Structure formats: C-alpha cells, structure tokens
Amino acid sequence: MGWTIRAATADDVPALLRAVWGAFGNRPDDALIETATGFVEADRALVVEDDGRIVAGGANVSLELTVPGPATVPAAGVTQVGVLPTHRRQGILSALMTRLADDARRRGEPVAALLASESTIYRRFGYGVGVWNTMVEIERTRAVLRRPPALTGRTRMLDDEEMAAALPPFFDRYRRGQPGEVSRTPGWWARHLRDHETWRGGGSKRFAAVWEDGAGCAEGYVSYRIHPSWEGGLPGHALAVENLIALGPEVRAALWQYCFGVDLVAVVRAGYLALDDPLRWMLTEPRRLRTIAVNDFLWVRLLDVETALAARAYAGDDRLTVEVVDGFDHAVAGRYRLAGGDCRRTDEAPDLTIDVADLASAWLGGTRFATLARAGLVVEHTAGAIVRADGLFATATGPASSTGF
C-alpha cells in the first residue's frame, strides 16, 4: 500500500520521536522521550506511516531569529526530521520538507532554520549555512588574559533552581542583540534544564556561574561541564564550556578568567564560538588556543525573499538587483531590487545572480559575496556589483548561534 504523510496529534509525539531518533541510531528510554516531548509543537508536526507504523517524521517549532540591525524575524525551526533505514530513498524527506515549508509560509514565517546531521542533505532544499561554529581548547596553565578585567562585581555559582530562574531571561535579553541567535522556547528550557544524562557526553551535571555588577544585575553567564581525569592519581580534568554569554568585553573577560581559574582542570574546551570570536585576541599566548573543529551550525532557508531582506539593516543606501535561483521552490526564484532597506520583486536586469541557499549564507552577514564568487557561486552582471553587495551586507560583528533544536 505504501507510506502516507499526515499531520501529527499530541498522542503521536512519543512514537514520532522514537522513529526519528531511531533513524539517528538512538533508542531513547521513556525519561528521555518525556524530556523532549514538551519541546515539540504537536500542531506543527508531521508523521509518515506505513502499515500503521510511524516510520518517519518532522516538525516545525515557532522561533525568532535575530538578524543584523539588530532586529528579529519569525522563523520556523525545522526539527525532529528523520526517516527509518527501511524507508530511505522513497521521496519521504522531500515530501516532509515541502510540507514543513508550506506550514511556515501559512504562519507568516519568512525564513526557516535547522541544524543538519550531515552537510550534504539540505542544500538541495534551498538551505545555506548562516552560522559557522568553532571548537577550541587551551591548556589551562597557558590561558592568561592580556588585559585582566577591572570590574566592580562578582561571579556567583548557581544551583539548579537559580539556573531555571536566571538563565532564560538573561539569554533572551542577549539573543535579541546577536544576529544568528534564535529564541529558546519554554519547552526548550524545560528539556535543557532537566539535564538528562544522555546529553552530558560523559561529563558532569551542568555547572553555571553568573557575573553580576555591583547592583546585583546579571551581565553574563557561563555554563559548563567537568570531564574528570585522575590518571596516575594526578588531576587532569577538562572543563567544557557550553555557553559563555556576556553583554560586554569586560564581563566576557571576567567569565573566561573564571573558567581559567577552576582548580584540578588541565584543559579548557569551548564550542559554539563564532568565527570572529575575540578569545584568541584576549590571550597573551594566542598560539596556545587550538582550533579543534570548524563546523556548519545554523542553516537558513529564505521562504519570502522580500520580507527577509527587508527585515535586516544595511550599511548604506546603495541599490542592488539580485536574481535568485531556486531549484526546489520555483515560486521563490526571481529578481529582487534592494534599495534603502526595502526589497521588491522587479523585472530590471540583475546586477548579480545567486542561488537562494548562498544568498541565505550572506544574509546574516557571516559570508561575503566575494568569497562566494571565488567559489563560483555568484555571477556578476554589472561591474563592481559584488563589491557593492559586500558593502551593503557588511556587519560590525559576524553572526553567532548557540542553540541546538
């Protein structure tokens, strides 16, 4: 009879999660399913059934994405997408991605975003890498700041109840000013703060410390885990920074100094760092900071080019006409004139041609048109158009993203 796709119900969510996680090689227990269920918006989820069994699924969650300006736009967070090995190569993923895009448009979300398990999957659906993340490490004894912070305030450790009270509002305050960050829903925080052992990667339960100014107002926090090591009876722990978020350079320095001062630690590691993160420039021995990995993180899909391009700020009032190629959604393809921060469809001759996925990469300010052109991904029709595009889309800081969903 073959598979069919339908809207999920709340009762379907546990089976949806088991099927999707099974596609990723996991067999979650009931406690893990429970922690994830509250994050899924059942009325935005889809399931694929074959002979009465759920064999695949996918869902959107309602998010906000911060863009240069800063400003925020509604975004569909595409999540829990997977197909069991028995049903691969049958067109199921394409059907799911089409339905999820249609759902986002109906709700007025001009963009969709996701995290990819493999970097070969989602470009064919029009997604481009909007944010790259780096993972770094440094020997703790070599981690010395060039300019130790001179602040009036304190770093204070939080217990579980204090984390639940302090971290969500502070993160929300921060993410509204940082292009590339997305909002964290109450369901996301509930799952995150449950801190299920599966998410710990062999490390401790989560620690968190907040930096407060003299009036007791939080200006930054760091969350981390300790991976213990007592080889030969000697301490050699690794401190793995999960999030280090600060509203200013002095507070950032204070939080890094805190991490570099934790006893029994031999190495400090950190992920979710933006490509232009300033940590290397803060160290007396920048060579000691080793880059372990550079990975794509947040992928972005422009569903409504006019709305998405008009939502962000630009560095100047230059006019640019862009021809957008979209092999997955022909309704998006076309020519768009960007002028004075406004974007409209046009019949004018284009200054340059670019695929919708590559335009998404440039949209958040983390990828230059010149870089894409050198990769053969931008065609320049008007001399100097690529330089003009880079001037328009330039941002003071690159995008950063630290929220998995």
Structure, explained:
The strands form 2 sheets. The chain has a 12-stranded mixed β-sheet, with helices on both faces. The model has no long low-confidence stretch (mean pLDDT 96). The chain is α+β, with helices and mostly antiparallel strands and 405 residues long. 26% of the residues lie in helices and 33% in strands. The protein is built from 11 helices and 17 strands.
Number of strands: 17
User: What string gives the helices and strands in order?
Assistant: EHHEEEHEEEHHEEEHEHEHEEEEHHEH
Output mean pLDDT: 96
How many structural domains does the protein architecture include? Answer: 3
Q: How is the biggest beta sheet arranged?
A: 12 strands, mixed
Radius of gyration: 23 Å
Number of helices: 11
Query: What is the fold-level CATH name, i.e. the topology of the largest domain?
Result: Aminopeptidase
Instruction: Give the CA-CA distance, first to last residue.
Output: 34 Å
Key terms:
alpha+beta; Aminopeptidase; Nonspecific Lipid-transfer Protein, Chain A; 3 domains; 5-stranded mixed sheet; 26% helix
Topology:
Blueprint: E1 4-7, H1 13-23, H2 30-37, E2 45-50, E3 53-67, E4 71-83, H3 92-106, E5 111-115, E6 128-139, E7 153-157, H4 160-175, H5 186-194, E8 207-213, E9 218-227, E10 237-246, H6 249-260, E11 265-274, H7 279-282, E12 290-302, H8 305-311, E13 319-325, E14 334-339, E15 342-345, E16 352-355, H9 356-363, H10 369-374, E17 378-380, H11 385-393
Parallel strand pairs: 4-5, 10-11, 13-16
Antiparallel strand pairs: 1-2, 2-3, 3-4, 5-12, 6-11, 6-12, 7-8, 8-9, 9-10, 13-14, 14-15, 16-17
Helix pairs in contact: 1-2
